[in-house]
Design goal:
mainly alpha; single chain; elongated
Length: 81
């Protein structure tokens, strides 16, 4: 537990190189990341502003015949006069 394995040392060295390894590398990486996020947000905003056209459904037409009547169990339908 007290010593670090070679993989841990490689990670530490990699992070140190990333942070201190050159002028503007970290800020360049973060700038590219920020540009990607902004592009994603603007893409999502464009989709919200231009919604898909709603499907137009014609209104239902009045039925020519009256609807069937539901009768209780055992009840006979009445004769029409």
């Amino acid at each position: 537990m007290g010593s670090m394995s070679p993989i841990h040392w490689l990670l530490v060295i990699g992070i140190a190189v990333l942070l201190f390894g050159g002028r503007g590398k970290l800020s360049g990486i973060m700038g590219d990341f920020a540009k990607g996020i902004k592009a994603f947000k603007s893409g999502m905003k464009d989709e919200e502003e231009t919604p898909a056209p709603a499907a137009q459904v014609p209104p239902p037409q009045a039925a020519a015949q009256p609807a069937a009547t539901v009768h209780a169990v055992g009840e006979r339908p009445r004769e029409r006069a």
